[in-house]
From TrEMBL:
<dbReference type="GO" id="GO:0019695">
    <property type="term" value="P:choline metabolic process"/>
</dbReference>
<protein>
    <recommendedName>
        <fullName>Carboxylic ester hydrolase</fullName>
        <ecNumber>3.1.1.-</ecNumber>
    </recommendedName>
</protein>
<dbReference type="InterPro" id="IPR019826">
    <property type="entry name" value="Carboxylesterase_B_AS"/>
</dbReference>
<dbReference type="Pfam" id="PF00135">
    <property type="entry name" value="COesterase"/>
</dbReference>
<keyword id="KW-0719">Serine esterase</keyword>
<dbReference type="InterPro" id="IPR029058">
    <property type="entry name" value="AB_hydrolase_fold"/>
</dbReference>
<dbReference type="GO" id="GO:0003990">
    <property type="term" value="F:acetylcholinesterase activity"/>
</dbReference>
<comment type="similarity">
    <text>Belongs to the type-B carboxylesterase/lipase family.</text>
</comment>
<dbReference type="InterPro" id="IPR002018">
    <property type="entry name" value="CarbesteraseB"/>
</dbReference>
<feature type="domain" description="Carboxylesterase type B">
    <location>
        <begin position="25"/>
        <end position="533"/>
    </location>
</feature>
<keyword id="KW-0732">Signal</keyword>
<dbReference type="GO" id="GO:0006581">
    <property type="term" value="P:acetylcholine catabolic process"/>
</dbReference>
<dbReference type="InterPro" id="IPR050654">
    <property type="entry name" value="AChE-related_enzymes"/>
</dbReference>
<keyword id="KW-0325">Glycoprotein</keyword>
<keyword id="KW-0378">Hydrolase</keyword>
<dbReference type="GO" id="GO:0005615">
    <property type="term" value="C:extracellular space"/>
</dbReference>
<dbReference type="GO" id="GO:0005886">
    <property type="term" value="C:plasma membrane"/>
</dbReference>
Length: 548
């Protein structure tokens, strides 16, 4: 290992940090003068500008309304994370605990210390995940990505759950969280030069719901006119797909049910006025139904006819040629479904169900399919046979069989369809399958139970594998994990900076449209032909078919 790499591994593993706010960095941006703080990780300085408002507080008449630009911020002290958007659960990834508040439409900017206006560094905007109902811009240590990759990193909050994705059709628009993201991207275009960034070199990076958001931004006709808001995309674990994107009528039905429980009218302007005045905590509580088999499922993006104009699977199949033209890294992890194969999300106790018979397996599959809104009729004997042939007794346990099913349905099959359709008419689509098992358990992300779990790529790319506390207190992070994380950070930031074809650990990363090569990210990376799980996807999830 090179001396400089040893230094970084040591520094990151120990996370020996100090923070200086007094006499900290100052940026004169078009929106105002912004004062930040400097965080030092050993000898690597990172300037942090935290809690910068990009939209007016979405309260009062602006609750359930399109975001409005915040405008000038004056002389702003931006040295603390502000607030998470209201949500029912704390994200398990949260490393910077902050309170919740409706006034949450803020963003954070990270840069390597010494960066100045005019440097025109590449910019990575990171959209957090969390099933569109939990998470925040403070969730991950993106300062590590900025420091080691020497890029500008921006992390915005966006509205979640009922406040971000309730669709009341003509009464109030849906997909507000996606519009929030878009407004944050406009803020970046207008202001990032002042921080030393290049608005013509913006990469949009998302994991899970963040990745699904990236694909929605790429697909949306709203983004096809005017200046491009981003120029490259990194998508880890998901695209906008049926089950994730729901019908607006379903969303309206849910909000009417909430209005009734709030003793509000259930239609018309009076309903909207009443729920706008409702206590936000009560609104969040009523929107979250732990009795549903998918306990993280509340409100999701909708087919609203505007941001998402039509059924997303058909849109990808038939209209990918008209999507935004961006280069991309896109892929999934080997064991995407292990976090989602139960009705529990604490990864303890009976989460890892003991499904012993084919009947128990199929009953569980039926509940999962209903909870995640898969358009599968599991009362049909032919469908049940296809599911059994594809998944039953194909792993070491029936729980892992179920995990393979749900991972395919939510993440892998939709991603495959997107890659195939998009790459037919767009160059520079670099697909991956993440297979490296983390050497050391972090929080409840125990590889012995979860395998190569959901969003593994992003945990390495943002340095979170290094920054998380280990299961054993005071145990240092694994050196091999650290080294692998540094290499993933390098490929991500090089991709943001350069138009050259990417490579990982000396292996060239092919363009999928030129031979269907897929990079398998492991300790020893390799290129394989074809996408993961395609046979299962064709048999069980044919509604994700790609363009012919």
């Amino acid at each position: 290992m090179k001396p400089r790499r040893r230094l970084f591994v040591f520094a990151l593993a120990l996370m020996i940090c100090s923070v200086r706010a007094e006499d900290g960095p100052k940026v004169d941006a078009p929106v105002g003068t912004i004062h930040g703080r400097t965080r030092t990780i050993d000898d690597v300085g990172v300037d942090e500008f935290l809690g910068i408002p990009y939209a007016r507080p979405p309260i009062g008449k602006l609750r359930f309304a399109l975001p409005a630009p915040f405008g000038p911020v004056g002389n702003l002290r931006a040295t603390e994370f502000i607030a998470r958007c209201p949500q029912p659960l704390l994200s398990p990834l949260l490393q910077n605990p902050v309170p919740t508040a409706e006034d949450c439409l803020h963003l954070n900017v990270f840069r390597k210390s010494g960066t100045k206006q005019g440097d025109a560094k590449a910019v990575i905007v990171v959209l957090h995940g969390g099933a569109f109902c939990i998470g925040s811009a403070a969730d991950t240590n993106t300062g590590i990505l900025s420091a080691l990759g020497d890029v500008i990193v921006v992390t915005p909050n966006y509205r979640l759950g009922v406040l971000g994705f309730a669709d009341m059709k003509d009464l109030a628009p849906g997909n507000l969280g996606l519009y929030d993201q878009r407004l944050a991207l406009e803020w970046v275009q207008d202001n990032i030069r002042a921080f030393g960034g290049n608005p013509d070199k913006v990469t949009l990076f998302g994991a899970s719901a963040g990745s699904m958001s990236v694909s929605a931004q790429i697909n949306s006709p709203v983004n096809r006119e005017g200046r491009p808001l981003f120029h490259a995309a990194i998508m880890d674990a998901g695209v906008a797909a049926p089950g994730i994107v729901v019908d607006a009528d379903l969303s309206l039905k849910r909000i009417k049910s909430i209005a009734e429980k709030l003793a509000c009218p259930t239609k018309g302007p009076k309903m909207l006025d009443c729920i706008r005045k409702a206590d936000v905590n009560e609104l969040i509580k009523l929107s979250y139904n732990p009795e549903e088999y998918s306990p993280i499922y509340t409100f999701h993006p909708t087919v609203d006819g505007k941001f998402i104009p039509r059924d997303v699977a058909k849109d990808v199949r038939d209209n990918a040629k008209g999507f935004m033209k961006v280069k991309m890294l896109i892929g999934t992890s080997k064991d995407e479904g292990t976090m989602f194969a139960s009705n529990r999300i604490d990864f303890t106790g009976d989460f890892f169900m003991n499904l012993t018979t084919e009947g128990e397996f199929l009953d569980h599959i039926g509940r999962l399919a209903a909870g995640f809104k898969f358009p599968l009729n599991l009362t049909d004997s032919d469908v049940r046979r296809k599911v059994t042939d594809a998944y039953y007794q194909k792993s070491s346990s029936r729980f892992l069989d179920a995990a393979a099913f749900v991972g395919d349905g939510i993440f892998i099959c939709p991603t495959n369809a997107f890659v195939r359709s998009y790459s037919k008419t767009h160059p520079n689509v670099h697909a991956f399958r993440f297979e490296r098992v983390v050497r050391q358990a972090n929080f409840f992300f125990d590889p012995k139970k979860l395998g190569v779990f959901h969003t593994s790529f992003t945990l390495y790319a943002c340095g979170s594998v290094i920054a998380f506390e280990t299961v054993t207190p005071n145990e240092p992070a694994n050196a091999e994990d650290n080294a692998f994380s540094l290499d993933v950070i390098q490929v991500v930031t090089n991709f943001a900076k350069s138009d050259a074809s990417p490579e990982f650990r000396g292996v060239k990363w092919p363009d999928f449209g030129k031979g269907e090569g897929v990079m398998v990210l492991d300790e020893k990376p390799r290129v394989e032909k074809g996408l993961f799980s395609e046979d299962r996807c064709e048999k069980v999830f044919p509604f994700f078919e790609s363009a012919p």
